[in-house]
Design brief:
Rossmann fold; 54% helix; globular; 9 helices; two-stranded antiparallel sheet; 16% strand
Length: 180
């Protein structure tokens, strides 16, 4: 039977670093963020629902506008409600896509799924084990600022939408401290 292991952690914690290590060891890794973006681009029903929720600016010349969407859903005033509705569109689509991916890789002994919102999306329910990648908050903020070219305030706004690290660790089977 194929074992599915979830990789989760807060923004900037090093989830992708850990996932790359697993991929380098030869394990297939499903990246839920990339899948969500792909589905937002390619799935007609997802596109229709996102356009209805966020307006025509969510797509420009047929392409998903991540910066536009982020500005809407991380806006302090209306963002939380929009983010909740956006997640209600994307999470089920990603979950269904992950199940298809898992079936396509059923010959493998071990698979990994990387997701910042593993618990919030319910993907943890599909996992046999969960690894929580963690790092000090100041390190996470510095990583995201350098990676995305955003302000500390923007990073903190994203962090505020995610499960806190203590709760994430409590719900995980393994905690990996990533200070690299």
């Amino acid at each position: 039977m194929t074992e599915l292991i979830g990789i989760t952690g807060g923004i900037g914690s090093g989830k992708s670093f850990y996932a790359r290590k697993m991929a380098e060891e030869g394990f297939p890794v499903y990246n839920s963020d990339l899948a969500a973006k792909r589905l937002a681009e390619e799935d007609p029903e997802v596109r229709r629902k996102i356009s209805a929720l966020l307006g025509e600016g969510a797509y420009k010349e047929g392409h998903y506008q991540t910066a536009y969407v982020a500005a809407k859903v991380f806006d302090p005033e209306n963002g939380p409600a929009l983010l909740k509705e956006l997640n209600a569109i994307l999470h089920p689509a990603v979950k269904a896509d992950l199940l298809r991916w898992k079936e396509a890789h059923k010959q493998e002994n071990k698979l990994y799924v990387e997701s910042a919102l593993l618990f919030e999306s319910g993907l943890n329910e599909l996992c046999d084990q969960v690894v929580c990648v963690t790092a000090p908050e100041d390190v996470c903020i510095a990583r995201v600022m350098a990676r995305d070219g955003v302000t500390e305030e923007a990073v903190r706004a994203r962090m505020a939408t995610q499960m806190n690290d203590a709760e994430r660790q409590k719900r995980s089977d393994i905690v990996y401290n990533n200070y690299e």
